[in-house]
What we know:
The complex is a heterodimer. Chain A contains 9 helices and 10 strands. Chain A has helices spanning 53-60, 83-89, 110-121, 127-140, 157-169, 187-204, 215-221, 239-244, 249-256, and strands at 3-14, 27-38, 42-46, 68-73, 76-77, 93-96, 175-179, 207-212, 224-229, 232-238. By secondary structure, chain B is mainly α. Chain B is built from 13 helices and no strands. The radius of gyration of chain B is 22 Å and the shape is elongated.
Amino acid sequence: MSSVLRATGLNKTFAAGGMFRAIGADKKAVVDLSFDLQAGQTLAIVGESGSGKSTVARMAMQLLAADSGEIFWGDEEVTHLSGSALRSRRRHIQMVFQDPFASLNPRMKIWESVAEGLKVHQPSLSRGQRRDAVAAVLNQCGLDEGGMDRYPHQFSGGQRQRIGIARALIVEPKVLVLDEPVSALDVSVQAQILNLLNDIQKDRGLSYLFISHDLSVVRHIADHVAVMFAGHVVEQGAVADVFGNCRHPYTDALLKARPIAHPDERSPVDTLAATDEGVAESGCPFRNRCTVAQSDCAGFDARLNAQGFACLHPLNITTDE
Amino acid sequence: MISFARSFPLMFIGGLIVACVTLLALLAPWIAPYDPSEINVKVILLPPSWEHWCGTDTLGRDVFSRMLYGARVSLAVGFVAVGISLVIGLILGAVAGFSGGRIDGVMMRLTDMVLCFPTFFLILAVIAFLEPSIWNIMIVIGLTSWMGVTRLVRAEFLSLRHREFVMAAQGLGVSSIRMMWRYLLPNAMGPVLVSAVLGIAGAVLVESGLSFLGLGVQPPDASWGNILTEGKDNIQIAWWLSMFPGLAILITVLGYNLLGEGLRDYFDPKLKS
């Protein structure tokens, strides 16, 4: 298997304030993050709001420059590229956005929005060829090509998300970055879109970088998962391992925080306790909210160990380890 | 049409006024009962009557006919001046808003500097050096009123740049020129249109003021401003000379303001739901 998207040692800090630097502290959005996405696989990044998931997506797309670290699209390192060199390589990786109402240009017809990638990457195509290609990709995304001369506001949220997927697929990328692609949709529509994504992945052998806060969705679609807290990856591994036998207390808390579907099932005791002191400035970032934190956590540099978690007092350790 | 008039009554009235004034101005040669510069000493300073709807002036010229031709001047100045300020404002605002960072900072500080000049006196100063003519007025008003448009376009571009559809286009590799032309500009045009319509009202007022001071349209050509000047000298004996051009300015400016405010509400997504 070959790597299609790889990140090594990514860092991103957002400066607080513009002219008045003294107000507030700089926000560390992503700290020393690495991942490797293989062809045909799905890597999910999960975490709560503000954990840096979307920043990772934007850096993977090179829509946002990392402060340090490298990103590889296939074998090629792209963090040093800019201008037309970067533009010509963009068809390798495409993105589907969270908000289906904000992700399409309201002043462009659907087919124009979808054909935009062809205009950039295959400028020799005629208008008719572009329309044919758009119709084909819309069909694959479960839309009737009869609507291609309409404007985005004439479509529902689920339909628009399909259009957004079609726009990404038309340049035949190797990787799709999916930034919470279903969290703005109704549950029934969510399932349709997830099934569509599954089918497309099988069809085209695509790789997905799937950003989500919804663990049940992740369990359904992902092969590997990275759990982020405050810019750090705190646990990483195969979905079955991380969800079945989590080691990091934060992963455990996330899993237990999921809504319970059946009234007979009782929600377990909230392991996040009542503490909401936020992120620790030094040491393990989670220690202020952690139920098993001890004094040595303050000196821990919160890096993933060889087993794929960043914790001094992991849960679920069997005796033979 | 009726439901539109009901939901946006002010805009409807404003649009109606603007349409009427524009129509009267365009059709002036056919509507005007007399030649606007025809002097007739037998009918000096007649009050309004069936022969002369708005009376006659000190040279016996028909005030109504002169006002119709004055409307052409006012509207031409309004449209051309706003056109010039739109072109300048769109280009500068687009560059500043799209580039951001240092270029944006420098351009906006320069804009602020120009904004600091009291516009009317700047125009007076420039006109003092140039020949006062309708063309010079159009150009000078246009060159001194682009700052608002610039700031508006820049602000729109800055906020649009972070929208998801713009990022999607960036992710596809769309070029900067195409990005501005197809993604940012069309979505920024609503507020720009509003400010353009309000700008026409402002330009009409400035032109009237300049003509009133004798620095605008020169007699014998008619303009609402220079009819008013004549009216001012005879206000005790011929009220109609100042009343009718004054009303014309008032109604026209009101019409454009109502239309502009109405368009603002119309484009405001918060009021739409």
